[in-house]
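Hi L., both proteins are below.
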Amino acid sequence: MMPPKNPPEVWRPVAGFEGIYEVSNHGRVRSLPRLDCAGRHLRGKVLDYSPTRSGAVRVHLHLHGVRYPRYLADLVADAFLPPPPDRGYRVAHMGAIDNDAAWNLCWLTPGEIRARKAPPTQAPGKTCYRAVPVVATDPDTGHEWRFDSMADAERWKPGRVRQAMISYVLAGKINTHAGLLWRRADEEGNPK
């Protein structure tokens, strides 16, 4: 759905928090003026958001002294999108993940969401370091292990082997990592 020009902001109650919070079609949440559980008057205000590591926006709602973290996209979709055709559908962004406006959201199945995800972005002319095949060599025994990527090497010994440190060895900044010598698998004399 394309964003309308200068759309008016419409507020609707948040399901389960009626009379306490409202969500807008622009992707904002506000608290309403009310009395708290101690009888104090609370002013209404637009809530602050906290983005997750993935970039999705999360908001914390409070009810009877309990904090409820909720994704803003879910709140907007529940209030402004028609109901999903099936229980298996999830909210998805049609554009930027930090834009939770109603016109940027739709319902998709988990499979459709996975199919839409693009490969990681990288600088032009650069290779994504996680996809570089590497070989680890034990300097004492000469035994070699080949990995299709640095991520595979990290999964081999989680907590001990780190992708960033392998890239430092490949760049010549350090000599070894985790007691092993590292090189690209496609270097001369090694099979590709």
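That was the first. Here is the second:
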Amino acid sequence: MGVTAVAAGQKITAALLNSLPVSIPLVTGSVASSAAETVIGTFTIPANDPAAVAGSGFRFAVYGTADDTATPTLTLRLRFNTTGGTQIFSSIAALTCRATVTNMPWFYDGWIDFSSGGAGASCATQGQLNETLVSTTPANHANAHGPDTVDVTVQWSLVVTAQWSASSASNICRTLSGSLIRM
């Protein structure tokens, strides 16, 4: 993909339009009163997307907040397709949250880089989780993962999940916004 220069007077073709960056919005969600891993945000990528080939990929950003009671742990994950799908950024552990706080912000951003496409597309991921869940001082948890495989010949998803250590109506985690952009 990369950057495509468009010059004044240049003919606009389907190939040119398909090479331009495209943003896929995040479908937001939340979880409360549950200790089960739950999808709280979804990017849906169409089958055979032109960014899911060798030398191309996606950049993603997801913003959310959490509320809690007591000091539960919260595990935020990124996976392909479902809560049972391949987990990327697997070294980011459960975070013990500050006691009884609302609107604690967190932010995931990173890249999915493909080395091959097709039904067994191979990719590597890198990125970070920035959060104020544990402390009022922002913390950065960097991670790289891969290679992983995903079938990009069919519609697929990148999902954000949250899992609390304790079920409570006061333990709420939500996504507020996000975008996935072709690189």
